[in-house]
Specification:
With 504 residues, this protein is an all-alpha fold. It folds into 2 domains: 148 residues, no CATH class; 337 residues, Neurolysin, domain 3 (Orthogonal Bundle). The chain contains 21 helices and 3 strands. A 3-stranded mixed β-sheet has the order 1-3-2. A hairpin with a 2-residue loop joins strand 2 and strand 3. Helix 14 runs antiparallel to helix 15. The chain is globular and about 70 Å long. The N and C termini lie far apart (73 Å). The relative contact order is 0.12. The chain binds zinc ion. Zinc ion (ZN) binds next to helix 10 and helix 11.
Length: 504
Amino acid sequence: MSTDRDVAALRERMHELSALRGAKDLLSWDQMTYMPPGGAHARGAHGSVIDRLLHERMVDPGLQRLLERLRTHADSLDPLVRDEVSVLTRDVELAARYPSALVAEVSAHGSACFEAWRVARERDDFGVVATLLERSLDLTHRLAACHPDAAHPADPFIDAADEGMSVALLQPLFTELREALVPMVDAVAERGEPRAVLPVHRSGEAQLALALRLAVDLGYDVWRGRQDLAPHPFATRIGHGDVRITSRVDATDLQETLFSTIHEAGHALYEQGLDDALDGTALASGVSAGVHESQSRLYENLVGRSRAFWRYALPHVQAAFPELAHLDVETAYRAVNRVRRSLIRTDADELTYNLHVIVRFDLELELLAGSVSVSDLPEAWAERYRRDLGVVPNGAADGVLQDLHWYGGAIPGHFQGYTIGNVLSVAFFDAARAALGDLDDQLAAGDFAPLRAWLREHVHAHGRRFRPLELAERVTGASLRVEPYLGYLRTKYLYDTAATDAVA
Ligand code: ZN
């Protein structure tokens, strides 16, 4: 019957799209790990050809007709194919909004901007990228103009990363968070004290080996993965059997290696936990930036920064690093939960982290609205940091240039996922705890399989089958709510006296 032929044709097209995406992801992985600096120009050119091919195939009228036919026979389709058709239809509609020439322009500008950002950051000179950033803002407006129906010009970018979210939905939640967090940080943050560390003297290799061992215990499958070094750690899925993590090493502080690895392992567990049946379909990835981040933050913070976890981890840490033999669980727990006012988002502790994100989210909206200009951005940044975090950057490198997100083409839509992820991480973990009972005992015993199996069943296996808010509601029984997350932070940082004797 003709539907069977159409499903076979869909498989063929998806096979090609998956191959192009896998090739692009492998090129990007190489660019962020092993590529020599001199390769940047050629890599930018190779990447933009693949971007163009992907876009051409996505907006191909033949694919649109195929999807239309499949939608008219939706009732007779296998549920998996029906979900795939629905997700792919949304992807195609989004791609089709943008003219190919504009996509190519953004991609080429993104590469140039990224390289300029690297130089600017090295020289601590915002002037190096300012003109390119003006152009990014202009391109952002042109992309936004392809969505004349959007309520806010940032909404299409937010929706592309975190479907169903919008400025109208997020702004009140972020304001609620900010108003609660600023006084909490005032109450808890240490002032003027050096950062607490797990000081070690052995090589980065020993640190990486230990971190990977913990990741494997958490469930990361190295037969279908590998670990490498990267200055900006990330996890990436090249294919169903190839989900890679990267780590960052500080030669003198074990925390950097441990937590960057556990964080990325959390992302990788999501991708490795996708149902086998999704392989090669449009459903085969995490559903959104925020839900992805919920998994990495769940493992990094709710598991990795818990007392229970350190009961399991400390003997392994001490076996690998005898210089830490003097630590007890409580001291280690406090060292990895020290709160501090800081300038750098990626170094931020759990309590201050969202304030860093909200500064960026708000400034993106102000840039788009024109109430902050590109040339005023460093000043506006410094002012927000002074107000929200009580610290002022020394220059652009530890201020407005610290993250790469604004320097790759279009500006908005990259940061909200971090805070959505933090909020959801607690909601998911609470649901897991309710289902699994003595979760702390399991973690303390190094028995991570029940948690992983629960997350796999309720979150990972589904890939993109449920939309982010729908998934959150199915798993937690509620939509995105800030209060349970704030309750968790209060309990940990305000009411737990053992953990808060670091108060200034
Ligand atoms: Zn992450």
